[in-house]
Amino acid sequence: MINSRQIIPLTLFLITIAHAAIASPCAKTQTEQDAWVHRSVDVLIAKAHAAYEEESAERVYLKVLAHIAGTLKQCKLTDDLSFTSRYPEFVEYIRVLSLDQKPDHQLGFEVSDRVYFQQTRQFVSIPDFLLKPELLEAVRHFETLGKAKEILRELNSNRAKDEQLLFFSFESRHLGTPDNDDSYKRLLIVVPGNPAQNIPEKWVQFGIADPHARVPVRNMSVVAVVHGPDNTSNTYFKDYFRTYRSNRPVTVTGRWELGEGDDNCIKCHKSGVLPIFPVDGSVSEDEKAIVNLVNKRFLNYVAPRFGGYIDPSKFGPGLGSAHTILNQSRTASNTNCSSCHQPSGLGSLNWPMDSVLISSFVEGGQMPLGSHLKALESTQLYEQLINDYFSIDPKQPGILKGWLLHYSGR
What we know:
This protein is of the alpha+beta class. It folds into three domains: 94 residues; 187 residues, no CATH class; 90 residues, no CATH class. The chain contains 15 helices and seven strands. Strands 1, 2, 3, 4, 5, 6 and 7 form a seven-stranded mixed β-sheet that branches. Strand 4 and strand 5 form a beta hairpin. Helix 1 packs parallel to helix 3 and helix 2 runs antiparallel to helix 3. The chain starts with a helix and ends in a 6-residue tail after the last helix.
């Protein structure tokens, strides 16, 4: 068993081994360059797979990524037209994977975080009526959540039918909030938009503290969707933190503006907005119908785009896209992820991606939609999907390796 004192030496050893596998003087001939790319792809994918499975392996993965990116720059391979014409996906993939390693690109977009938030302010701002002091105070504690819903129902009484707020509380199956990894309770409010007037639909979510918790949850997030041309949907993101002070109103400020960093949005939001699959029993009977209505709206957000701030196609094909995965007792259409998760559909599930989210959807039985797999079948399907995607077997390369190295078949 590895103890905490062994972790740092082991990590350094793994980094050294990974660097040794891809380190070499700048390759001059095409044969040398090809050999270096093949070695680099294998090491990168192996370390990405490890980082997907265990967060503790991310440091080694990032070191490998930085080393490959540094070699491309140092050896001027990105200026070599012969090289870039042979490996256009590899060159661009390394570039976009490296974006969120820049201090001012934590969101993982082509522009800096500052520029992104400046240019998307009109989309990700919180509606004023959701910033009323009485509402912010009511969502501060689980015990006063009922009062918050009364306030929202009162707001609806003065809104037109097509402007009605959709709201419900639930417990997430997936991730905690950015300020509390153990916080899973949520209040979601969907504020309808108007595509004709380019007014975004906003999914505003409050993190809710557990019953009797002394420390309130700070996070509040906005995911905004604007319908674009050719049946596409542009999605924009922003996290906010609430600040609590004794005998003073709750204030809401952007997480980034507070200097508390941010996260790579696309890692989790491959489809832009995420459907809601609450923990069983966490939604009241009178709100279950609203969950269904909200998820139907999600199905209208096909072909997710991100306002030109990142091109999701540069991350390549996703899970289940190389070939149909079959189950002995199921049909191909029920287990083929790419039938929905592809660029013109709900977005490809590709690296970088969050293992907690993906495993929860698949092993939890929510995906593939309509498959009705047994628990063991769902686990087997999940393991096959992940292994098939990250495989570096030279005789049967996985989806990611096949795309990066232009393998035409399996």
